[in-house]
Amino acid sequence: MTYKTIVVHMALGKQRRHRLALAFALAERWGAHLIGVFGVDQLSPPAGPEGRQSLIAHLTKLRREAAEVAQEEFSAEARKRQYTARSEWRASLELGPHPDARVGSRAGHVGR
pTM for the full model? Predict the structure, then answer.
């Protein structure tokens, strides 16, 4: 069995580098295209107007920084393995609050 495209999620955490190495190894083995992905949920800050905008701004900044680190790790590994022509990076950073996060409501927070 072979694969044409492999997607590796570049989530934060200790296992990211191991996942990345495995994804590149499999892509090389099968001659597959490799896509590195960094995605996050929409922000769901606590209800209430006090400090809400500054919290959203701070969390957005942290997400952007984390995405930049993940992208650099992915790109560095692609360069090291001379796999840049067969790999690509994608990131999704939803910057606003979750649509169900209404002030004074806990809608959209079930199971969190």
Answer: 0.74
| pLDDT tens-digit readout, 9-49 | 998 888 999 999 999 999 999 999 999 999 876 666 666 66
Q: Indicate which CATH number applies to the domain containing 63.
A: 3.40.50.620
- Is residue 21 one of the residues assigned to a domain? yes
Q: How many helices (H) and strands (E) does the chain have?
A: 2, 3
The model's pLDDT over 64-102, given as tens digits with 9 standing for 90+, comes to: 899 999 999 999 999 999 999 999 999 887 655 444 444
> What is the domain range of residue 35?
5-92
Whether residue 109 is contained in a domain is answered as no
- Asked if 52 contacts 34 with a C-beta cutoff of 8 angstroms, the reply is no
How many domains, the chain? 1
